[in-house]
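Archive transcription. Copying these from loose printouts into the bound notebook so they stop getting lost. Printout 1 of 2:
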Amino acid sequence: MKRIKVTLVGAGGKMGMRLTHNLHNSDYEMSYLEVSQQGIEKLKVKGISVSDAASVIPVADAVIFAVPDVALGKVTAEYIPQMRKGALAVTLDPAAALAGKLFERADIAYFITHPTHPSVFNWEPVEENMNDHFGGVAAKQSIVCALMSGIMEDYILGEELASAFYAPVLRSHRITVEQMGLLEPALVETLASTCIYVISEGLGEVIKRGVPAEAARDFLLGHLRIQMAVLFNELPGAVFSDAANKALQRGLKEFIKDDWRKVFEPDNVKDQIESIT
């Protein structure tokens, strides 16, 4: 059976190295592209040599672009014209696609995927696996996948490839590119990261006011776990106490704006995407 040829662009970068870790010993016929000397040296440590783009891009069945959002426009403009007709271009984030930054070709397919990262409710049988907070090494994570253009065979190829480089994968969810934009940046970066950042700043405040740091951290993280378990229905039927609900309602009035849901409005999401690309 013919092996699928895959080229990984940005293989020695932060995200690229994570993908390289899983793809290096996969069943795919891999080629790696990297321009930074630091990235090239990292690949050498793993016994990987960098290929010549002109030799591998035109024969690849799939080209993965593991480069930052701000660079995707320039990088895809250089490499996508070299791809063979019918090949699959894979990106790891929806932002550049939604911002119209990807080089467009009508005769290739575009597939976008992103990891969910291991859930806070993950249970891993091996203790060390619990330290894989990012995913892609030992802890299970799910992935979201979107076919921006192409046919079902392209989606299947993309999903199988994503399941390999994000392994171990618990579940794969097929969604649209627009839905992926609602998830990131809107839900998990603009909204969730901001809320969690404020919580971390709150931890610093109570420590400044005299609470022992270790006690404050243990108290906060333990309460976060039970609060999330209740709110995300990990404990069916469990509810907050009357006192906790009163404190929650007070917090909503004091420092949460009534119009916070605007972060999910199409124009707002577009502005968020443009600001990071």
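Printout 2 of 2:
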Amino acid sequence: MSDQKRLFDHYNPIEERVGKSFFEELPRQPGIYKMFGRKQELLYVGKAKDLRDRLFTYRRAKMGSTRRKIVRLIRMTHQVEIETCNTEKEALLLENKLIREHQPEFNHAKKQPETYYFVGLEKKDRALAFNLQMHQPDNEFVFGAFKGHRVIRKSLGGLIRILYLLEHQVDSVFELPSILTRKLTPMQYELPIAWSRELMTNIWPLMLDYFLGKRMDLLETFMETCRKRELLESFAGSMILDDLEAMKWFYERCSRRNFEIQQQLGLYNPLIPQEKLDDYLIEWAFAEE
């Protein structure tokens, strides 16, 4: 590599572009900052507990050892604006609002709340219908909205697989329908069920409470039933344990968290609108402090 190329790779242009005085006058206050490109296009919105500390990380960034995304952002930035807030909570809420309104290129999280999932359940005569959608499904029981594409689809797939194994008295992955052997669950699935069986009668209320975030007795019931049927020692054993772990993660990160939001913020409806979820998560986090 030539000396000229090496110099270019390590060159940080941000102080030269926004001015040394900009950094010297930064306040030690909570707030948001907006980074703009050459044509005044908004590239990124960030929040800071301390604006001076946060923005100095861009000034000090070493181009040879900083993540490529940050390097690209710094090199595209030609102007930075700040707005102070009274509290970090206020800054977070403002950041959410600006990201939703302006959809900056370098912001990915919180950018598209319309992609947060709802889970729909419907108890039919001979089947249990599962429905996973990014708009509120027309089912008898609806839960959400939930964030986290992979964890939601993996945990719901695990739930359906375990129900299939228990209901249809099988003990091998090879006896599952092929659609249930994929890493992510199908968006819609009807599981044939004989509702007269005691197992399913007992599991139904536990499943509702699991999605409502009230308790995860469903997982203990699954574990105990699988032990009694010696499924954990079967060919399906490792898959069952993986699925139970995914379901536990979903409960802690999604349904339980939504339940706590509802309780702490005094929400009447347990169904949380997609566009409100990020703001409610901030309100919930600061209510716990």
